[in-house]
Amino acid sequence: MKKGVLFKTVRVAVVLLIAVVIAVALVQLRPRAEKQARTSDGRMVEVVRTRSQTLPMIVEAYGTVAPREFLKLVAEVRGQVVATHPAFIEGGSVKSGEVLLTIDTRDYELAVRRANVGIRQAQAELDRLAQDIVNLNASLKLARSDVALALAEANRFKNLAGKNMTSQSVLDKADRQLLTSRERLQSLENQLAVTGPDRIRLESQLEMAKVAMEQAVLDLERCQIDTPFDAWVMEKAVETGQHLAVGQAVGSIYRTGAFDIEVKIPMADLAWFPDDGGSELGLPVEVLFMETSTPKLWHGRLARIKAALDQTTRTLPVVIEVDEPTAGDSITHAADRLKPGMFVTVRIQGRRVENVHRLPRHLVHDGDTVYLAADDQLNVQPVTILRRFKKSVLISHGLSDGDLVVTTPLSGVVPGMRIRIEGSRD
User: Fold this and answer.
1) Which residue, 371, 59, 94, 106, is CA-closest to 220?
2) What is the pLDDT of residues 360-388, one digit of tens each?
3) pTM for the whole thing?
4) What is the spatial distance between Cα 414 and Cα 74, in angstroms, rounded to a whole number?
5) In CATH, which of 1.10.3720.10, 1.10.1370.40, 2.40.50.100, 3.40.50.620 is domain 70-105+223-254?
């Protein structure tokens, strides 16, 4: 029994020894784990490729459309309205020279006739005076001859009296005859002398009669109110049969297709205007009306820059002129034409600037920097902002063509951090 127990004990010990040896061998022969450096592929970002442009500097402003020529029509003579033009209604269209309104002309036609009679009367008086002058000159010629004869007769009797060949009474009679002839000559000369003032008076009367005629004709012409240009009727304030007083308003019109828009430009934006103020026709301007489903567009020009700043806004008013085209004699359709009172946006095309980059405004970060992708790294690039708009900016320095600007929003940005480019847009 002792030998059997001993044998079993030895066998178990051998088995355990073999198991230990195998376990040690397995531990020694197992593959060893190698230490590897911890790696990161970086953040995934999207980028846009920059490209320089040559762009006009657009100055945007707002203003209200006003007619360039607006007329308030008033009656220049009194009287009753006897006729009006069918288109003389609010919104009506009239051509140049058309009669809008007619006032009763009968009183003014009579005034013309009276003035004509006055001219004829004054002319007749002037003609009579001219004939009187002719008659006086003829009478003066006879009177001078009579004086000469009377003087010769008186001298002859004086010679006879010196020889005691005639009486004193005959000599006295000859002297009286000479005196009478001289008095008659003096009277005629006096009458001729006053014809000068008489002629001036009658010529003045004739001139006044002609003035009265011109006034009467002018008043007669003023019985009709016509249009000096193609126009739209803004207001009508009279009706047929109404009696008008001098100076009473009858309506208002404005020139077709000619509009001004005054806008106020910040002084800083004037830097974008050319130094010479643009070409002879002015800087081109786009005028947009945004309050329709499809914005309406017209083209105009910068006509003039006013001389004084607006005291309230410290801006400089400028005037935009818009001339609407017409197709022949037909006027542009009402839906497509400018109207007074429209509030519009104007875009003035200023001078052109070369080698600028346009980016969305949100891509410019604090300190006027942008994030550039280069060699799987992010660089923080300072830039110079030329202009800022609501949604974009123009960059003049700091970017080159082909730079990759990161468009993905990032936080905790560190210069040199690793990034991966997901995609790029030109």
Assistant:
1) 106
2) 999 999 999 999 999 889 999 999 999 99
3) 0.68
4) 76
5) 2.40.50.100
Query: Is 345 within 8 Å of 287 (Cβ atoms)?
Result: yes
Cα angle value 381/384/385 (rounded, 5°): 120
- C-alpha distances out from residue 225 to 74, 76, 107, 219, 245, Å: 9, 9, 17, 11, 14
383-413 residues labelled b (16+ CB within 10 A) or e (exposed): beebbeeeeebbbbebbeeebbbbbeeeeee
Report which of 179, 184, 204, 114 is spatially closest to residue 142, judged by C-alpha positions.
184
- C-alpha dist (Å) from residue 90 to 66, 188, 198, 232, 253: 17, 73, 58, 8, 9
The CATH class given to the 107-221 domain equals mainly alpha
The pLDDT value recorded for residue 330 is 45
pLDDT over 90 at 176, yes or no: no
Give 418's strand partners: 377
User: How is the chain split into domains, by residue range?
Assistant: 70-105+223-254, 107-221
Q: Rounded to whole angstroms, how far apart are CA atoms 255 and 340?
A: 11
* Of 425, 416, 410, 426, nearest in space to 373 by CA: 416
Amino acid (1-letter code) at residue 404: L
Which of the 8 DSSP states describes residue 228?
A: S
User: Other CB atoms closer than 10 Å to residue 291's CB: what's the count?
Assistant: 9
Q: Do domains 70-105+223-254 and 107-221 have the same CATH topology?
A: no
